[in-house]
C-alpha cells in the first residue's frame, strides 16, 4: 500500500510539497493540469484558500478535485473568512469528503484583495483553530458537545515566518502551534540560507518536520515587489541582479530555486515549492536540486 503524506510525516522522511490555487470560477482544468506536473515529484499538494484575499473557488472543492484525480491534497483553511461555527463545519465536511491533511493559516487581510470592502472575521487565530481541530479529532466541538459517528482524523500543519523581525514572538507562536497539535510546519519563502540556518538553530527543541518555503523567482520586478510588500521576506541584491541579467529567465529561475534547495535541505525535513504559475518548472527544479522522485 502506498504511504500517505501523514505516514511520511511520522516516518521522518524528507518531504516535498507544492501548491495550486483554485480558479476564479468553476473551470478546474488549469488546476488539474498544473497538478499533473507534480505527479511522482511531490508528496502532497497544498490547495490555497482564497489566496491574497482574492475571491476564488473554495479550497475544499478544489482539494476534492485533486483527490479524485489521484493526488494527495493539503486543504488550506484560513481564519480570515469564517467564524468558529463555519470553521468547525468545514473541517467536518472535509473529513466526510475524505480529505486527510489540513494546513491552518491566518490569511491575508481583505484590504489586500479584490474585495477590499469585505469585513474580516478572524473569530479564531491560528493557534485557537489548531486547538479546535484537536478537539474535533478527540470527538467534541469547541463547546464540548460530542460528535456523532467516528471522530475525524487529519495530518495537521501550520506555518511560520523565519524572516520575522523580531524572531522571538514568531518562535513563541510556533511553540504554541505545535503544542496545539501541528504535526508539520511550512515556512514563508526563503531567499537567505544563512538566516534560515540561524532560525533553525533556535527551534531545535521543536520536534516536528519543517518544510522550507521556496518561491520560484520569475523576475527582478517580482523580487522587488516582495521586498517592498511581503513581511519577513528579503531577496538579496545578488539574486535580483542574477535574474535581471539572465537571458533566459526560466532557466535562471530553475537554477536559483534548485540552488536554494541544495543550500538549505540539510537544515530541515522538507521543502515546499511555490511555482506561482510556472508549475511545469517544478520537476526540473527538484531534479536539479538532486531530490529523487517520491515513493
When the domains are counted, the total is 1
Return the average pLDDT rounded to an integer. Answer: 97
Main sheet specs: 8 strands, parallel, barrel
Rounded to the nearest angstrom, the distance between the terminal CA atoms is 11 Å
Give the tally of β-strands. Answer: 8
Number of helices: 11
Percent range of helical residues: 25-40%
CATH fold topology: TIM Barrel
Task: Evaluate the radius of gyration.
Answer: 18 Å
Shape: globular
Q: List unreliable stretches of 5+ residues.
A: none
Pick out its properties:
alpha/beta, TIM Barrel, 295 residues, 8 strands, 15% strand
3D architecture notes:
With 295 residues, the chain is of the alpha/beta class. It has a single domain (5-288), classed as TIM Barrel. It contains 11 helices and 8 strands. The protein has helices at 5-11, 29-36, 59-68, 84-96, 126-137, 168-179, 193-202, 220-229, 237-245, 249-264, 282-288; strands at 15-20, 44-47, 73-78, 101-105, 155-160, 184-189, 210-215, 270-274. Strands 1-2-3-4-5-6-7-8 form an 8-stranded parallel barrel, surrounded by 6 helices. It is globular, with a radius of gyration of 18 Å. It starts with a helix and ends in a 7-residue tail after the last helix. The mean pLDDT is 97.
